[in-house]
Amino acid sequence: LSTCVRDVNPNTSTNLVQMVTLPSMLQAPLQALLRPAMWIPGIKNIHSHFVTWQSDKPPTEVLAALVTAIKQIKSSDDTGSFYDIHKINKDKHFLRVFCFTRAEWLDVVEIEIKEDSIEAKSFSSGFLPLFIPFAFILNCVFFWVPFFDNKLNKARLELIKHYTDLAISEQKINPLNEPPVLQNRDQQNTNTQPNTAHLEEVEVHQDGAIMGNATDSPYGGEPIMQNNEQLNTKTEPHTTPFGEGDTHQEGAIMGNVTESPYIGAEKDIPEIIT
């Protein structure tokens, strides 16, 4: 048994007769649902094609134009393929087409129209043609067998795009999605926030420089800076009138306070007020 479809091609003087057997028509929905040829990553790439299009028209208008293009392809295809529009979802702007080759292998075209892009894919659904009884079950058994589509799926999507009246362009997408690279290594340490852990020494960053080690204060509040021997910052020497060297850093107490020979009074050591 077979289903005979006769289309008249106005560009030629002969009629194009396309025939699809009844087993193929009955098994096609199950085969398209299972699609065993698409189960293994990597192998599926040799018999499928995915593309992203872009159009400035609303999704409803794009869907109508694609349906019209499929109907035109049915009457002008010279490869012996048969196109069956299986599903049109106007709410989700989705289109599915069954494409039977001359040997009745089933290829599936699915197009989803979004607000900013058009996702189109065409793929071979199984290793065996569907005129074989119970082919959809056998294809699930032979899902691991690799086969080549001779770039027919890619050509089919290009043909649909060609017959669409709307201006559709292919959208370029960077698959790597790599982050930008900093020009200067010093920029990697900028704009960092203090990192404080409970009763553990942590590094405190400020404006790209390491300010030293800090611990949580037992009285609460901000971390207390430890003495000068534990600081890893770059300090500048300061010479006192007695020849002793001391290190100072702006905004921080770096060591013990000594009696000043000019003031005559000993400076008070800062205390923590609870």
UniProtKB/TrEMBL annotation:
The chain crosses the membrane at residues 127-148. Keywords: Membrane, Transmembrane, Transmembrane helix. This is Uncharacterized protein. It comes from Mytilus galloprovincialis.
